[in-house]
Design goal:
CATH topology: Growth Hormone, Chain: A
Distance between the termini: 33 Å
Shape: globular
Largest sheet: 2 strands, antiparallel
Strand order of the largest sheet: 1-2
Length: 239
Amino acid sequence: MEKLSRNDHIDLYRHLAFSAVGGFFGCHAVLVHGGIMGNAQTVNLLELLLDALRGDAYATALHLGALALYVLGTMLTVLLPHWWGWDMHRVSPLVTAAAAVTVAFLPETLNPVVALYPVFFAMSIQWSSFAGARGFYSSTIFSTNNTKQTSLALANYLCDKDKAHLRKLWFYFFTLLSFHTGAAAAFFAVKWWYIRGALAVLPFIAWAYFLAVCERRHEALADEPETIPDNTAQPTSNA
């Protein structure tokens, strides 16, 4: 049987799709939950420290809970495949979809940090499950390093005109574009449906999941050995 060719760009499409998901969650959290971004830990850790220094045990405990969920999500991307052979490319989108539904139906009066617990958990799993594409390490849930790498690639290209830098530049640029496309979708979703707008990310997640499954199938096809016809056998004669 002839071996099917592998789509060499499927990992890029998957990466861009999950970047849009990350941008959506980041913007939704900022708009709905008092400017707190649940995709990362920098602000959470700073607020944890400040609340601890102020002696606010309750607020410190809430931030510790967010940190614990983020750490747990990250660790599970290693432990689940190790213990039970789970494919995190398939599991991560399901966790993210569950987080979106949960966030959409939490009480609006809930503490903003607690309201973002599902996002802290889901985004930590997404980041550790999808670390980049096309040979580039790139986050799908925040933009700092992607902005840095875009800037470095442009500077290096201006210095030596090596087109390899352009390839890197466009990769990170489109990652940023996809992230902020998702963020723009979150803006309108929150504007029209407020907290329920989290449900608008579900089509993005479904598309990303589809691409992740396609990527796995292409990888499996690429790993299959080619069948070579055996032409050495000699025909037998009944004469």
